[in-house]
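Before a colleague's protein record goes any further, I have to sign it off. My question to you is simply how this chain folds and whether the tokens agree. I do not need a full report, just your reasoning and any doubts. This is what I was given:
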Amino acid sequence: MNNIKKISAIVLLLCVVLTSLVACGDKEPAGNKGTGKFIDYASEVKLDLKGANKIVEVKIKQLIDGDTTHFYIDDASFNGDIIKARYLAVNTPESTGQIEEWGKTASNFTKEKLSNAKSIMIESEDSGWNADSTGERYLLWVWYQDEEGGEYRNLNIELLQEGLAIASATSSTKYGEIGMKAIDQAKEHKKHIYSGEKDPNFYYGGCIELTLKELRANPEKYTNKTVAFTGVITKNKGQQVYVEAYDEETQMYHGIAVYYGFNLKYGLGDILQPGNKVRIVGSMQYYEAGDSYQIADLDYDMMNPTDPSKVMLIEEGAKAAFVETSAEKFAKGKVSVTVIENEEEKIKEFDYASLAIGSTISMKNLTVKSVYTTHNGGDHDGAMTITCKSGNTQIVVRTEVLTDANGNVIKANRFEGKTIDVKGVVDTYDGKCQIILLSMDDVKIR
């Protein structure tokens, strides 16, 4: 017994000694898997405020994704004092269109660093402002100060060293040499993109991960394909609901109709309720009778309600946006969107209303000019088409069959000659955008 005690004591002493030796060595940051010391290259490059390059302090306007940020800038070269920065030397995975592995992780990393920064500087590659291939964004180095009076860190290099971006003409840039070292180190330490592991912020499966903006901007591209996106259920209409989500780049809500049909699977009806934030998985379809796109063929597993390959409830208590919109903007507004064509980013211009289809808006002070009531013996008897004017702009409001508190059908004389404020969903009829009014609770008549 005494021998056993002595052996145990020796083993314990050896463990303590070995642990102390390991503790005294160089420690690698959590998540590193390489064998060498991890070098913080983002702090090794220094911001030269007296150099020949353009260097300006900026403020955040919009945090778009991992390698794109819009800043307020005090420079006469930019109309509206806004510069759209496309980070030099890096290319992070997509998170605002068709979503890629590590895209949201990279976006969250950039947003966290800049949101908490005490100061942000942008630096050009030379003495001028250089636009990228879209012509609307500028290629820049982005520096941030994470504590008052501290040194500036190069966010471009930091994205590379964290394995959250791949090279984009990195070697030919001002900080190219250290940028390439950062990439090699990220590979050695198997950081993020190079880890061979699954991204916890990405859903894996047979569906295409994307945003509602991407779906609305490129509907033909995804027709008859299974897609997945996240949005808020805003309104129920017949056998469909409308879903919308906000986009940072366009600063607007994008939406789409989701058709569930007459036979809801047990439990799915509880998820597809207005106010629920939901992950939608279904087939993108063109609905010829309605001349519109919709999501159909939903699947839900009540035995496994958190299965990301199917419709899934994310949270309750959300609200429809009902963004207040002018009639002129609705009828004549234009929106620029970054799209991918032939593996290149391009800026494409859309009509505002066409990008807003399926989303909720509100509009005030519409003067009713005429009302047409449907009478064709169908289920829509009593629905109205209300033609309105706001200044010189015409807006069409299409109603469902509306009823009052007692269940009586609302008729045209309730609207004729009046001024109305409406809250509704953007939809189309005969190729033209209009506002769908679904309830008398969503209209104010004066």
